[in-house]
User: Fold these one by one.
Assistant:
Number 1:
Amino acid sequence: MDFRAALGLNVASDATPDDIRGALALSKTIVVRTITSIPDPSVICGKFLRLQRYCAITSRMHLEGLDENKLHLKADPSAGRQDIEAQLIVLHALMERAGLEVRTSREGEIRWQDVPALPAIDTGESERLSDHLHRLIAIDPARAWRLEDTAAALGLSTRSLQRYLLAEGGSFSATLRHMRTDLASQMLRRSATSLAEIGFCCGYADQAHFQREFRKVTGQTPRHFRTQPKATIKTAP
């Protein structure tokens, strides 16, 4: 998957910051919609950095620190200053697209002033914790859900979350794997979205990870799954 194409950046490589922000503000790609779906700076940054890895671009950045209204990024040693500035402009624009009031974005640092209210989380009325977990992940499947963050979102300790899921015959990792596979299956069936975009939007680390995890659950590759009639789909044990 090409990084610029995934973002809908149909501008010249030497485009001005205003041109880049304008292109991302109007972009209709599923990747941009996925990255900006939740107006949380740390979540947006995490998705952006994963997109860099997913697209295997050479001038990648890493999150060094995160404060209440500031994050600091560090680039790979091989990245030039121009590459760093270009990446910061893109991340700046994505945050603006999500509704954040970004103040500065230079020297590896992005500051913001106001953050829109996060959407309320409705995990349903089921008595099964695994059902609540499914609905939580479905709100933002591209997020790098960690056990600690998930437990906090559900108002539980990590130990309680693990214990309750175990009592229901599951685990956090298995629930996450099956939920992402289910969402990927729906996208494969209902849209013409590319396999690479589906893999990213469903939270996989890279295309190889998507292929491996999807096959582990369904017994088929994503490409083969897409071409088969629904009646022939079998889930691997």
Note: The chain has a mean pLDDT of 88.
Number 2:
Amino acid sequence: MARPLRHMRLTPSLLLAAACIAGAAPALAGYNIWTGEYSLTRQELQTELDKRFPATLRYAEVVSVQLSHPRLVLDEASNRITTHVDARLINALLPSPPVDGKLALNSGIRYDPARRAVLLDNPTVQQVEVAGMGPYREQLNAIGAVVAQQLLKDYPIYTFKPEELRVGGKEVEPGAITVGKDEVRVEVKQR
């Protein structure tokens, strides 16, 4: 005779079967039902950022700046993202060798509802490194500020698909954005 359900014990095999059934249900990629947040991994963000590089910017037909090899760092303490890039300055007027350096560009993050995208916000130059070329540091710093605005300002690091903004049959919208050690978490709330 079968026991009533209220007296059934949760055995390890029963728990495993329940987990398998729950795992078979479709889930939204990156959405955590328990916390109500989307998680954007460092690798997903790096892949999106890689699409923006290499890039070459020209200034007054005099200086050309080649930017390559972006490296993303998530700064949990300041809730910001830092992008390290290699930079090469080439002066078209002077017959001199290119000047190599590195830039660290620091950005906040915000959500743009019209684009359904998480964007880099207000990028600034955090650090400039030019090996053995002290006189070029100031120029690279000035150029870095322009690079930050032209290349990274309002750059979408993640764009939500329309179906990702529907959870449980209800419309949701992104809220608070938090930078973690290995991910960016985007809270979602009902409209």
Note: Residues 134 and 140 are 10 Å apart (CA to CA).
Number 3:
Amino acid sequence: MPRSGPGSVGRVGRRLGGIAIDWALAVGVSLAFFDYEEFATLLVFVVLQIVFIPTIGGSIGQRFVGLRTVALQGGWIGLWRPAVRTALLVLALPALVWDSDQRGFHDKVAGTVLIRS
């Protein structure tokens, strides 16, 4: 992968911006439909991740900040990768542990990489 520009691994600032947007959307939906129930907010966040990563190439927040989630070996990301990635993401700790390639543990386990589009 290139070191910078399109196709390079997404850096921390964009990742944090994307997840903040996704969480804000989940909170908004939770406020509108579930009177801000914490479990409902988490469930909405999970559904947004699992639905939008395989359909539009990333979550709404990721796409807004110029990132895409792709399968490391290429091709369609499928449904299981976003599900595994999101399950680990909601645990938070795997997302806070990175390797030298700037990939979070949740991405490594799912075989995905978050790249600049």
Note: The longest strand covers residues 67-71.
